[in-house]
């Protein structure tokens, strides 16, 4: 009975160490995954800022381009109309 009890104790200790080691590995992997997710979220925020900046630039250029085209059309229209002498 003593040998069976000793074997049980040794197996229990071995399995406990193995489980503890596996949990440590799992925790390390989970922490690594968490850091990577935080990096991805940080990069996404950076891209949102850059995208907003380019969007503002695009809107400004589009508006100034439309205004410029409108002014050119008005100038061309005014030049093509005959002037009235008073």
Automatic annotation (TrEMBL):
Keywords: Cell cycle, Cell division, Centromere, Chromosome, Cytoplasm, Cytoskeleton, Kinetochore, Microtubule, Mitosis, Nucleus. It comes from Mycena metata. Belongs to the DASH complex DAD1 family. InterPro entries: DASH_Dad1. This is DASH complex subunit DAD1. Its main location: nucleus. Pfam families: DASH_Dad1. GO terms for molecular function: microtubule plus-end binding. GO terms for biological process: cell division. It is found in: Chromosome, Centromere, Kinetochore; Cytoplasm, Cytoskeleton, Spindle; Nucleus. One of its GO terms (cellular component) is mitotic spindle pole body.
